[in-house]
Design brief:
Length: about 190
């Protein structure tokens, strides 16, 4: 990957963090002090090694990143552009997970598996999905683009695009036109 592309991606990630975090004060602070960004940047390196079948080195690197940031992203996971992990501690993204573009994850989110068999075991998250603190999205399911998953929800079934998912187990309802993602995640009725 060309240096210009790498720098462009870093700027894109910083801008995404600035857009999604009302506490963000500046580009340098975000770039130097946001562990969610550091985990995503490191994952890009480890994923490149994983794709080149340097599996041990990729896993070792991902474990180092986990130790440094408190965020575990398996090097086999496929991550889209502008993923923002806010307050990152305890986030886990499994090996066969796929995360779309412009996704927002809060702390303690798990994109995990439910079975031991090989193959696709982890969820596919569509573009522009927001997942609240403590939510668990489990198994080889698909969450449609533009969906919002409330805090502490446990999602084990597919959800169509523009859904709101809350509860244990999570139940989906259609998202109304104009519902703001940030407001939905802060609304008390979406806490568990």
């Amino acid at each position: 990957m060309a240096l210009r592309t790498i720098v462009g991606r870093i700027r894109e990630d910083v801008a995404a963090a600035r857009l999604r975090d009302p506490a963000a004060r500046g580009a340098w602070e975000i770039a130097l002090l946001y562990p969610g960004l550091h985990a995503v940047w490191a994952h890009r390196v480890w994923h490149a090694l994983w794709r080149r079948r340097l599996r041990f080195a990729a896993r070792a690197g991902s474990q180092l990143t986990r130790w440094l940031t408190g965020i575990e992203i398996h090097p086999g996971a496929r991550i889209g552009r502008r993923l923002f992990i806010d307050h990152g501690a305890g986030v886990v993204i499994g090996e066969t997970a796929e995360v779309g573009d412009d996704v927002l994850l809060y702390h303690q989110v798990t994109l995990g598996g439910r079975q031991r068999e090989g193959g696709k075991r982890h969820p596919t998250i569509g573009d522009q999905v927001a997942i609240g603190a403590g939510a668990k999205v489990l198994g080889p399911i698909t969450i449609g683009a533009g969906s919002v998953i409330g805090a502490n929800a446990v999602v084990t079934t597919d959800a169509p695009a523009d859904s709101i998912l809350v509860g244990v187990p999570a139940k989906a309802r259609p998202r109304r036109t104009g519902e703001d993602t940030r407001a939905l995640l802060a609304a008390p009725e979406y806490y568990i």
